[in-house]
């Protein structure tokens, strides 16, 4: 007698033994029940569990990623929404550049979230379910149009606003309220106030030295044009709070830019181009004052006063007569040994 759980095996292995229709139906029913118990119910019970586990893993990974980004960057909740943009812009261009940055960051996040959502959806929806090869698609016209046209539209919008804001930032007014000539040299600065002459017709200026940080005094709410020139190598004029810097070239090149400072106060200025041994010490201070204080300062300078004396005439005293945001560097030229 043949011993088998399959009708086909029984028939093929035992051709001499005939089976009635009832016996064949019974065997097929038994085979179906066994297969259903081994695969169908277990799979139905396990599918929701697997889905819940997959969703939990994805949520855990997302939470871990966000926690790592926040902790490793050391950002506060307030800093996160600046998306890396420095705080404290003090010019009329600062807010426009900030708006441009935030718009670009939001656009990038929207595109990124959309792409991430598609990736995770495909991972979950089209994960491997068996050995059968899924349907192969040669092309998908709507998707191809989407990833061809959408990036072009995003780039076009960003390019438009970039061109508008950049043109506005680089615009030089014809009749500025104040014009200042900036001369960079190794490793300090000289600031001359164009059109303002002191005794003997000498232009009013402030020159830095090894033991004196030059203070550049400017009025708030006035249009100021800076003309930049270097005597030796390439330097770069940079005040972090104005969120703008421009290279200073030697030779016949004179760079210009215009700003309107909107907040009073002292702000450190630096050279942002590697220019030699004391590059890191090539600092100055931008002192933004009221228009009334500026007029008193210029009047004192035209009378032959030094910069600290002119600042005293403008109403400053004590340590405010000198730079407060940075200090002179030590040259140690009289040291016997290097340190």
UniProtKB/TrEMBL annotation:
Which UniProt keyword terms apply here?
Copper, Electron transport, Membrane, Metal-binding, Respiratory chain, Translocase, Transmembrane, Transmembrane helix, Transport
Q: In its keyword annotation, does this UniProt entry include Transmembrane helix?
A: yes
Keyword rRNA processing annotated:
no
- Residue intervals of the Cytochrome oxidase subunit II copper A binding domain: 175-300
Sorted alphabetically, which InterPro entries does this protein's record hold? CcO_II (IPR045187), CcO_II-like_C (IPR002429), Copper_CuA (IPR001505), Cupredoxin (IPR008972), Cyt_c_oxidase_su2 (IPR014222), Cyt_c_oxidase_su2_TM_sf (IPR036257)
Reactions this protein catalyses = 4 Fe(II)-[cytochrome c] + O2 + 8 H(+)(in) = 4 Fe(III)-[cytochrome c] + 2 H2O + 4 H(+)(out)
The membrane topology term of the UniProt record is: Multi-pass membrane protein
Localisation: Membrane
**EC main group:** translocase
Residue stretches spanning the membrane: 58-81, 101-124, 145-163
Chief place of localization: membrane
Q: Which Gene3D superfamilies match?
A: 1.10.287.90, Cupredoxins - blue copper proteins
Enzyme Commission code:
7.1.1.9
Q: Name one Pfam family in it.
A: COX2
**Function field:** Subunits I and II form the functional core of the enzyme complex. Electrons originating in cytochrome c are transferred via heme a and Cu(A) to the binuclear center formed by heme a3 and Cu(B).
Question: What family name appears in the similarity comment?
Answer: Belongs to the cytochrome c oxidase subunit 2 family.
- What is this protein's name? cytochrome-c oxidase
Report the source organism: Luedemannella flava
